[in-house]
Design goal:
Blueprint: E1 15-18, H1 23-34, E2 39-44, E3 58-68, H2 74-84, E4 89-93, H3 98-101, E5 117-129, E6 132-137, H4 143-152, E7 165-168, H5 172-187, E8 193-203, H6 208-218, E9 223-229, E10 232-238, E11 241-246, E12 249-253, E13 255-260, H7 265-277, H8 279-297, E14 306-315, E15 319-329, H9 336-343, E16 351-352, H10 354-364, E17 375-379, E18 385-388, E19 393-397, E20 402-411, H11 417-438, E21 443-444
Parallel strand pairs: 7-21
Antiparallel strand pairs: 1-6, 2-3, 2-9, 3-5, 4-5, 4-17, 5-6, 7-8, 8-16, 8-20, 9-10, 10-19, 11-12, 11-18, 12-15, 13-15, 14-15, 17-18, 19-20
């Protein structure tokens, strides 16, 4: 196991070195090697399936030079950290930072072992862009030896045949009752919409990297990630972008609206059109679009917030999603970290009005979300950034063998509780099938 290499010196100047290797083979070797480090972020855009959705085909960052993981005043501390390091920075914002951003609190149980916020400066950054593989590092003299170590690295993966038992935090009956309570809040005018989540947990040893490979093969997504912070692992197949900064442009692409795919091409197209025309899904989507417009307006130059694509349909392995795109031009004096803060937690995982929805969500759910429905991604040396929404994910703690998955859905006045419950199971499908493949047969109790 490799731990973080601490350094008091800022590593601002990185050499850009082109690597003349087969991209797919190098990526596979890099991922195995990088995953052995205690700080590792692997961002995989699956560009063979999803062209032009991200700037890089993949990024592999590992071996921490410096780490920011404060326990209080997290966002302000990270803001100072990012100003100090005009460099590549990788990490996550946990959902429960909401308690710092707004006057909120949570007494619910904790599922994962991630801190509310962690970011690290990697010694090594490899990425593929325009069919070119680049290494950015301040340790160019060590690159030859590193590549040799990567080629020679052998993982110690050992499979197990024992099944996993995953227990829900809310039974079907409890879930249905809570959906009705949320609908009562909507009828009283407290909120218009709320994202309500359930979780399944278990204790079992597994190999995180092999689990990620299985998840990505089964459910490839444009914001897929393998993310490790010490003994905490996230295996993520997210289809959703939270927020991207490109120059002065801010872009958000919330998902609201889901329907299962069909193996028959003709029937699948019918389902796709059904989602496109669904009154309920359009209602959910437009509420979140309005919320995101409001969030972006806090960072935008006046008059620059616009909806570029409303009710777009994108297709993934198991589902079709309704995705809208909102963008704005960021104010010149706005700090990039503040732009994220102003939009966090993301509208698609909260509700409207956001703060009251957050309060009701906290009352209805029985666990802290942790990194789930938070965001992982990166800042580049120019302070551009790209962050996903942490959904369709498996969390694992190798120290305790605790395992959890969470899924959620938007509750509106038109929601049918039983259908919402079935949709939550649909969204859990890829993770369940992944665990079935990785460690024999998982049991998901109801």
């Amino acid at each position: 196991m490799r731990s973080a290499e601490k350094s008091s010196e800022n590593q601002f100047r990185r050499a850009k070195i082109r690597i003349d290797r087969n991209g797919e083979e190098l990526f596979n070797s890099l991922v195995h090697y990088a995953s052995s480090f205690e700080y590792c972020s692997i961002l995989n855009s699956n560009t063979k399936l999803y062209l032009n959705q991200t700037q890089y085909d993949w990024i592999v960052a590992f071996d921490a030079i410096d780490v920011c993981s404060p326990q209080s005043s997290c966002i302000q501390s990270f803001k100072a950290f990012s100003d100090q390091h005009q460099d590549w920075i990788f990490g996550h914002f946990g959902y429960d930072l909401k308690n710092e951003i707004e006057r909120l609190s949570s007494e619910n149980q904790v599922l994962d072992s991630f801190d509310p916020l962690t970011f690290f400066i990697p010694k090594w950054v490899f990425y593929c862009q325009d069919n070119k593989i680049i290494c950015e590092t301040s340790y160019a003299a060590e690159l030859k030896d590193l590549l040799h170590s990567i080629d020679e690295f052998q993982s110690d993966f050992q499979n197990t045949q024992e099944p996993i038992t995953l227990n829900p935090l809310l039974s079907r009956g409890e879930y249905l009752k809570k959906v009705e309570i949320i609908k009562n809040h909507i009828q009283r005018g407290d909120i218009y919409e709320a994202n309500f989540c359930n979780a399944w947990t278990g204790i079992h040893s597994l190999d995180p990297l092999q689990t990620y490979f299985s998840l990505n093969n089964r459910s490839p997504a444009p914001f897929s990630a393998f993310y490790r912070i010490r003994n905490s692992y996230l295996m993520c197949s997210s289809p959703e972008r939270f927020l991207r900064k490109k120059g002065r442009l801010l872009i958000s692409e919330p998902i609201k609206g889901t329907i299962a795919r069909d193996q028959d091409t003709f029937l699948d197209e019918i389902k796709k059109n059904k989602l496109k025309m669904s009154k309920k899904d359009r209602q959910e989507n437009v509420m979140i679009v309005d919320l995101v417009r409001n969030d972006l307006s806090k960072s935008a130059k006046p008059g620059t917030v616009e909806v570029c694509d409303l009710f777009g349909i994108r297709s993934f392995a198991h589902v079709h999603h309704m995705v809208s795109t909102i963008q704005c031009e960021m104010e010149d004096k706005k700090h990039p970290v503040d732009a994220i803060k102003d939009a966090f937690p993301m509208g698609s995982m909260t509700g409207a009005p956001k703060v009251r929805a957050l309060e009701i969500i906290e009352e209805m759910e029985v666990a802290k979300r942790g990194i789930f429905s938070g965001s992982i991604g990166y800042f580049d040396p120019h302070h551009d950034f790209d962050f996903n929404v942490v959904i369709r994910s498996i969390c694992y703690d190798s120290a305790t063998n605790k395992l959890s998955i969470q899924t959620g859905g938007a509750i509106t006045s038109n929601s049918d509780p039983a259908q919402e419950y079935e949709e939550s199971l649909l969204k859990a499908r890829a993770m369940m099938e992944t665990l079935n493949n990785s460690v024999n047969k998982p049991i998901m109790n109801n």
